[in-house]
């Protein structure tokens, strides 16, 4: 009965869908629809109609007539109050425009049958305003398969001989965010050079021709705002009078960054010789003259005027008195004067919204009581690394000017730049932006996307969220969005593989951005440092990351084979270059770290790692050269620079080469030991593998390497049938200098310890009683030399662990991925859920909803807060350190924290706070690692079963990983792999 009901319901839905949609033949049976607009409508409507006509031709090969009304099938588009044709349609066909009229950027698309003599069908697009109409026309481009990146990333559409649209009578808009756009920033190494030397040499700069292409992209992405490029290498936007005309033609609103008050580019427009010092306390009249000039120049154009003031070159404002009260009062005076200037230079009907960006020291002034008129939008910023610093509280959410967001996916500054590739995790951006929206940032969204390329996907995701946030409610929204994006650009058959590839790319970049792999810093620039990745614990973090990036390169090359020829250039730009660039920058450094590490052990393989490091560097050079000089026959020459600011991370690698041994001998190094096996040392700790644990099923490696230049044969002889070696013999020579073999255990064959109800006690995991430990080994034989490597197995037969599903102590710690809880308990107002696609493991546990009340009293925490519980089994007891790793977000309100509480068993909860302030050393480490790690002391009172509890204190806290350390955790970048049964 249930199946029948579902079938009937599905049939009803399909029937209803069919009844609510009407087919419109754009190109069919030799007939081609025309596009008709009123010549008196806005210029952007004409531009959009021309774009649509070109898109139809690109898809079908057929030329669409524009501005004529003789075709049997017509697209008729216009703006309410501006188009006589649309007004006539509304009147003649009783079209209800009540849901459009007076709305912001809203449009209706519908089909009218036989609207007049000679017209069989009219596809009618009615816009509430000029942008609404333009978006409506370009909605048809989306319907026929055109990507917004058809020019900026050469995404060619799939050719179709016929274009028949299924049109639903539907209202689109109003957008979730009123002003949505991008900031062209740090353009020195890409966009400016490409424009000046390639695309717009007649201007020698980013000028009106370049901006026209940028504005077309924004229209296709349903954006309406830009903060123009503003570095000294680029002349100010208003230096070229035509720029503002082009912007207005495309209906693009001009805004400016926190360092550019009143649409003035201080970098380029302030001249000390003629204008004096740029300080308001001593030279306000000269500064106001510049403000007045810009206000008059832009009076007839849409703009968002940033009020307030910073110093030159994005520095703090210079004031006479060095105290906060004086600085606040002076800033209030600046804003009052700016508003008077705008009031005197505002034309009727031209909106002049104002924005205030509380960024860096300006945030401090705002928090110190700055009196800001409530009609000014508060534009909150992230901390430059993707984490929103602060959002509107309940009172601020009532401001008539609302609030906005300025967000980075590209950044120049301390602790380190990331200007080359897009390495901001899209799921993190989704999490932070939906949070910002929830806390009232709905008026302005600006994305600092650097040179546009290679930030294409995150730009589209950001602007799609700003257009309709309701379609991004769940954690899987980003993956679904990426699947659709990939299908549109590269075909449905490739979408899943590409999306999975990019999610893996983003997971690795989240653990460490490519640009941070040198462990160096900027401001001041430092040399490369020692990596925090361990090379001998936990399976070798360096080696595992090498393998992960080699897999990325292999996967992207494999997928590329399936990409149709007409889409290969797009695939190269959007997928291949970012993947191979990031992976090779990683490999350059990872192999360099390998080189130095193995050279210290005297391995001849150090030369191989040096070669591989240099090969990775050359691969980046080769790919970048192809991007600039071969791709699209040089269309993108100068757009891509592989070494922005020429920082140490981008430099050619150096190498360490060990001296060669006179005679060849077999060298050995075991997992968990920094030093190689030394046969001359009796009872060396470096000749025994870490203990194998029956409950975690470990595997460990042994590196065999050549010391010397002659070929050497080796053989591995396990001394027990339960020891499994991945390879039992081989040769080392100049072409094969080292080999890693893996040791595992056949758990069906290994002897079990005695039957006990509980585990043994004792703090030293290596001193487990013999009844629980089975010892044997492997003999390695080469020439006349035999080396014995000890193998110890912990294999007790404990009834208490039969059918146990929790975590278990291994080598003196318990490691847990936060999403793998044993159970959870919902709170009165909140609950724990999982976000997929972010975090070190690709998942995090997050407490929602974000506006749930914070609980800070211990009794209230225990009674009201949601709980995560993790079962674990300990073989030791005593005081332990519980480490929690969280995503390093900030509290939405600067008066709260980013807190949870933890306890083992029935202990009182201990509150843990991940919040940082300013640019502290803790914050720097957090953003470099995308992790905030805190620890608390707890007591495990007996060996046996226990329970770790985590309570929400502040909603929105995101827990990534957990480590319960009995004293066995060795130094590593990430927590060790899970110790799960």
SSE order and pairing:
Blueprint: H1 2-20, E1 21-28, E2 31-32, E3 34-37, H2 43-60, E4 73-79, H3 84-92, E5 107-116, E6 119-127, H4 130-143, E7 163-168, E8 170-172, E9 179-183, H5 191-199, H6 208-220, E10 225-227, H7 241-249, E11 253-254, H8 266-269, H9 272-275, H10 280-297, E12 305-306, H11 324-344, E13 354-356, H12 361-367, E14 377-381, E15 403-408, H13 426-438, E16 441-448, H14 456-467, H15 477-490, H16 492-511, H17 541-560, H18 568-599, H19 606-629, E17 665-670, E18 692-693, E19 700-707, E20 712-718, E21 723-725, E22 729-732, E23 738-745, E24 755-756, E25 773-782, E26 785-794, E27 797-798, E28 807-808, E29 813-817, E30 823-825, E31 831-836, E32 843-848, H20 858-864, E33 867-874, E34 878-886, E35 899-904, E36 910-913, H21 921-929, E37 932-940, E38 944-952, E39 958-965
Parallel strand pairs: 3-4, 4-6, 9-10, 9-16, 10-11, 12-13, 13-14, 14-15, 15-16, 18-26, 24-27, 28-33
Antiparallel strand pairs: 1-2, 1-7, 5-6, 5-8, 17-19, 19-23, 20-22, 20-25, 21-23, 25-26, 29-39, 30-33, 31-32, 32-39, 33-38, 34-37, 34-39, 35-36, 35-38
Domain Gylcosyl hydrolase 115 C-terminal: 806-978
Protein name: Glycosyl hydrolase 115 family protein
Organism: Algibacter aquimarinus
